[in-house]
Structures are given as structure tokens and as C-alpha cells.
Design a protein that fits this description.
Elements lengths: L15 H8 L12 E2 L11 H9 L14 H15 L9 E4 L2 H12 L8 E4 L5 H9 L3 E4 L2 E2 L5 E2 L6 H6 E7 L11 H14 L2 E5 L15 H7 L8 E6 H5 L7 E5 L1 H14 L5 H11 L3 H21 L13 E5 L12 H12 L1 E2 L1 E2 L16 E5 L4 H17 L2
Parallel strand pairs: 1-12, 3-4, 3-7, 7-8, 8-9
Antiparallel strand pairs: 2-10, 5-6, 9-10, 11-14, 13-14
Helix pairs in contact: 2-11, 3-11, 4-5, 4-10, 7-8, 12-14, 13-14
Length: 408
Amino acid sequence: MTLPLNPLLARLHPYPFERWRELTAGITPNPALRPIALGIGEPKHATPVLIEEALMQALPTLSAYPATLGEPALREAIAGWVQRRYGVSVNPAGEVLPVNGSREALFALAQTVLDPTTPGAVVVCPNPFYQIYEGAALLGGADVFFAPSDPARNFATAWDAVPPEVWARTKLLYTCSPGNPTGAVMPLAEWQQLFELSDRHGFVIASDECYSEIYFRDEAPLGALQAAVALGRPDFRNLIALTSLSKRSNVPGLRSGFVAGDTRLIKAFLLYRTYHGSAMGGMVQRASIAAWNDEAHVVANRELYRAKFAQVTPLLARVLDVALPDAAFYLWAGIPGPLGSDGLPDDIAYAQGLLAQYNVQVLPGSLLARNAGGLNPGAGRIRMALVAPVADCLEAAHRIVSYTESLR
């Protein structure tokens, strides 16, 4: 008997890390060297004590069901952080909603926005991209259009290259700023272009901002809500910003974030989540309040990344096409070496060789993108997550230099 399943599941691609496990299943890493993992973007810095203490003090909240809307104190803490960080006022009663991490919300938002009864809907997203965007679109019954990227502009998305007929069918647009994997930050002019397109075609913009607090320039990255206010859109129409505590506060296991923006979208999203059963637990809410109300640990965390990148980036730049990003904790590096069938260096073969010979895990860039217009914009590149302690990152960098030099 055939198992009755949602046929849309068959449209999903293997997740990048699942695909990488398949590609490395037969590889035995060099046992003479300890393993160093730069593949997964999982923060490894210590969780702040104030968050751990708040979590433990909230044990009595286990005796009650949490509300999907979240405690007023949490929504007020989030609104206060948005005001301090972006200079933007959001109403904690109707423009803010806590979520169980931005990944969960990025997926669920598509199910709220997309109409599965209307064929031909399109979700537009950058390329390379965070894979949840694609999965959310496909399981929402939509098609995905991968907007081209420009390597000459740090892989900035070329929105002008999206055909008018695609914009006419677009229901949802995902942006990521600072970007994963490139670390690029969208400027105000780019936001203006997207807002004008949204007004013309009526689509929703979901702005993924989970890396916003790890940056290397003097000025903090521009946020979507901040851009909206600067461009005369204080109602945040058709805009939802999403962020989380995972990277900002080194609590990936807490699964805590929020969405903020258009009150109409927040209301609809709350309705969806009420049935979805995704209320944030009371302990997580109390710990999140402590995190959003404290900035000292965020500054200290950012300085750790700045010191790490300042040491590692110049070392890798000796052999790779890589530079300090605007933000986030990735290095998006072009590699040398034997060419693949597309005429670009074979990033999968490079990463496999690095693992086998030097026991360093990185992620091939082609696994983070899709072929579009005959080109995979991740081909010939690797993504390195500098989340490990500085000594490990430096050791990995020296091994990468040695490996790359051996390919010449």
C-alpha cells in the first residue's frame, strides 16, 4: 500500500549538510590531525551567565501553558531593543510577535502568506541563499525564482534582472541582510527599490536579519524596519523583519527570536501560529527578556569575532580570494585548483580534499545555491564559519593555506 503523503515533499532538495554527508561518506579524514569544523554556522562562544540564570529562575513557569502571543514583558523588551538598536518605534501589542527562532518563523510565514489554491505563485529569493526559503516556498505550493547575484559586487542581488512577468506573480520575497553566506549588507537604495516593487506588485517582504549584531564596520547594519521609516513607511506595509538570539547572544539551543512589522501580517501570523502550536515556553521567554535587555554581552561577543576575523582573514587571503565581510561570521572564499565542468574551480573536490588531507570541514559553495541561467553562483567558492575558538580557527587557516599551496 502506498503511504499517503503530501506530494509537495517530493519537491524538496536535500539539505546542504545532508548532501555534504553523502559526499564525504567514503572519506577518512587524516587521523594525525584533530578535526576542526568550519562548516556549520553554530555559535560556539559561551552563553552569557545572565541568560542561564534567568532560565533557571523561571522553572516555575513550567506549570502553565504559554500564550502564543507571548508575555507582555517579552514583547516590551523586544520593542525596547528595536528602539535602541534601530531608532524605530514598534507597538509591542500589535507589531511584535515572539517566535521559536528565525528559522521556524521564516518557514511558517510562507505558509501564512501563500495561497495554495492559486496556481502560479512565485517566491523570489537571493542566490546563494539560506535553504529554508526554498523549502518554505515549495511546501507552500509556490515556484521559486532565484534572483541573480553579482560577484563583482560581493554577490549583491541583481533585482533588476528579475523579469517583469516574475514580479507580477510574486507573493513573497526573502531577503537576507547581513547575507548568508556572503556577509553583505543591503544599502538604503536597495530597500527603496524593493519597497517600490512591493507596492507595484503587492508582495510581502520577509527580511532575515539573524546576523545583524555581528559586524566589522563602524556603522551597524541597516535593518528593514529602519529603512522603511527612513523612506516614509512607518506603517511597515507588506514588511516583516525576522531575527533571533542564536547568533547575537550565543544561544542557538534556546530557539528564540521575534518577527516585527505590518500589523495585518502579524495578526494573520498569530492566527496561523495559534493553530500551529508554536508558543514559546515560559522559561525561554524569561531568558529572552534578559537577553534583549542587555547589550554588554553582545558588544563583547562582537569583539571576539572582530579579533578572530582580523587574524584569520589576512592569512587566508594569501591563497584564497577572500576579504573581510561587512557582517555575519562567515568567510565566502573563492578557491584555486582544478576546474570542474563549468570551467570554475571544483569546490566539492576542494572541500573533500581538505577534509581528507587536513581534517578541516568547510562547506562547498555550490551546495548553498541553485543553477540559474546556466550558472551556480556558489561554484568555485567555499563557506567557512569562524565560530570555533580563535586558536582552532587559526590552526584551520594554516592547514587551508598548506592544502591550497599543495594544489599549485
